[in-house]
Design brief:
Blueprint lengths: L6 H18 L8 E2 L1 H11 L1 H4 L7 H9 L7 E2 H25 L2
Antiparallel strand pairs: 1-2
């Protein structure tokens, strides 16, 4: 059985995602958007476990295209949440698949 998060844990996660976005956004100007370079820095720093074995050098371009960048080629907070939500979903799917194998 999955342990449910208390509201305090969920609030901490929400605050953390907001702070992480703000940490990387704006280094190249607009602090409400992530540029491609800022997104790459975020991924290399915060998601190192996901990106360290990535052999496809075009993955970032494809991800940004799939996320639907704005006209300036930048990612807003909503798109950032879509990205991180997709990663959480993939981890959840992987976890539930592996736990079903042991039942």
């Amino acid at each position: 059985m999955v342990k449910m998060s208390s509201p305090a844990e969920t609030q901490q996660c929400t605050e953390s995602l907001t702070a992480i976005f703000q940490k990387y956004a704006g280094k190249e100007g607009n602090n409400s958007m992530l540029s491609k370079a800022e997104l790459l820095t975020f991924m290399d720093t915060e998601l190192f476990a996901f990106t360290k074995n990535q052999k496809d050098t075009t993955i970032l371009d494809r991800m940004m295209k799939k996320l639907g960048l704005n006209s300036n080629g930048q990612l807003d907070f909503q798109k950032f949440l879509n990205l991180t939500g997709s990663m959480v979903k993939a981890c959840y799917d992987s976890f539930t698949k592996s736990t079903h194998l042991w039942k």
